[in-house]
Amino acid sequence: MKWMFVSHVFHLLLYCSTQTLGVEIQSEPDVNSEGVIQIELNQTVNLLCLSNGGSEAQADEELVWLRNGAMVSLKEGNKNGRSSVCVTPVIYEDNGATFTCQLKTNSTVGSSVTLNVTYRPQLSGSEELTAEEKSALVLQCNILANPPVSSVSWTLNGSALDLLGGGFTVTNDGYESQLTVSSVGKSLHEGLYRCSTHSPIYGEASKFFSVTVTEQTMKFPLIPIIAGLLVVCLTALLAIVSRWKRIAKCFK
User: Fold this and answer.
1) CATH architecture of 14-118
2) Residue 249: is its pLDDT beyond 90?
3) Average pLDDT of span 66-95
4) Is 80 exposed, middle or buried (0-12, 13-18, 19+ CB in 10 A)?
């Protein structure tokens, strides 16, 4: 009987301790069971922190907010018992950011949420380019997205690229997809290129490149000509200096 009484008292004390000190974060949009808020780029997140203390004094405890461990500046009147933070607009750098609300007097009492910012690849419109024959051609597509795009493809005049026959090289580092031609030929490389991506939540996005190939022009050999002119000028100057006495006699 005695042990049963002690057990009941222990559980009562444990229950009271979990109720007297606590911090809860409510959010719009809602936070999921893993403490993550999914939000689109340029949208708004509203966070509300509540101190759910058992007594009136504890319920009015001062709260602090941290973003990735750095303190967030709060106005007076937005600290005691309840405190709100608004993130607007949500930017790229907010992806993965963790917001923590905790008691100022006891940093072990707190709650955290993490933002998962979703955004589509910045891929649209068209671009006109001109390349000389025998020169290099580089086309770039911004494919950065969250979640990452599931596929990237390139076409020329509506057909898939012949990588070997056309001398194309395609690279993809997760941020950009790059199409490179080391030596442009008019018959092979002139036309309308299309870079397309597919996102699991945003669907397809594309950008077009209209490439015109012109004949190769002779490069004016400016540096050798300048060097030759300098040599001629210096030679003439030395000739004048060496014959200065004779030239001077002519004017006496």
Assistant:
1) Sandwich (2.60)
2) no
3) 96
4) middle
